[in-house]
Design brief:
The chain contains 5 helices and 8 strands. The protein has 228 residues and is an alpha+beta fold. The protein has one domain (56-222): ph1033 like fold (Roll), CATH 3.10.590. It is found in: Nucleus.
Length: 228
């Protein structure tokens, strides 16, 4: 399909110093979750090149940049409002150039839900929910020499990079900032809880991240609470 030129990328190639991605370290404090005695099933890392027993994730977190930034002369901005403005509020999630993130894309299944996360901005965090409406297929931008994510080493008969199609589901009831999620993460690391091993903090720069069911449900529950 033909993609509009304005919708260029959700990219892995973010600057070394992302604005807002390193908020002031919050106190671990206490989590309002009621998960203090929650026992997390031990999980191994998943999705990397050559990984063994991969976890079958059903939920995801997708990072995209809501503020203008030029990469090779092209604005890579793509906010949740830009998604809502697309035909049928649907677009391809292109421009991923990290093998682990690509493998996570390839693991995605139809109708699975993902958080839309605004990254590389003044206040990063979760703004909405999208769903997977087309499973992984070759990312056309890898073959486009005018695209900032062109990869001359990728061949059409054996493409290296994949993308999926996502569709807007809804905005979260409120913006859930990274700082708030991190406060719960620190509390759960201290006392046990669903965000104890959340990849958002273990692999902060990865633009495609899996979520366990417990992580997804807990973060989603925050939209009904007052900001901490």
């Amino acid at each position: 399909k033909t993609e509009p030129a304005a919708k260029i990328a959700k990219t892995e190639k973010t600057p070394d110093k992302e604005k807002g991605e390193k908020p002031t370290e919050p106190s671990a404090g206490s989590s309002k979750s009621g998960w203090k005695n929650w026992k997390k099933t031990k999980e191994s890392d998943a999705g990397g090149e050559g990984s063994g027993n991969k976890i079958k994730y059903k939920h995801w977190l997708l990072k995209s940049e809501p503020e203008s930034r030029l990469e090779k002369g092209v604005d890579v901005k793509f906010s949740i409002d830009d998604l809502k403005a697309q035909p049928n509020q649907t677009t391809c999630w292109d421009g991923v150039r990290n093998y682990q993130a690509r493998n996570f894309l390839r693991d995605m299944k139809l109708e699975q839900l993902a958080f839309f996360y605004h990254s590389n901005c003044k206040e990063p965090g979760i703004v909405g929910i999208v769903k997977i409406v087309k499973e992984a297929y070759p990312d056309h931008t890898q073959f486009d020499q005018k695209n900032p994510h062109y990869d001359s080493s990728s061949k059409k008969d054996k493409p290296k990079w994949s993308m999926v199609d996502v569709q807007f589901v809804r905005m979260t009831k409120r913006f859930i900032p990274l700082s708030e999620i991190k406060a719960h993460h620190l509390a759960h690391k201290a006392d046990g809880g669903p965000l104890e091993n959340m990849m958002l903090f273990a692999r902060a720069r990865l633009s495609i991240q899996p979520l366990t069911e417990e992580e997804f449900d807990f973060v989603l529950s925050l939209e009904d609470e007052k900001p901490c």
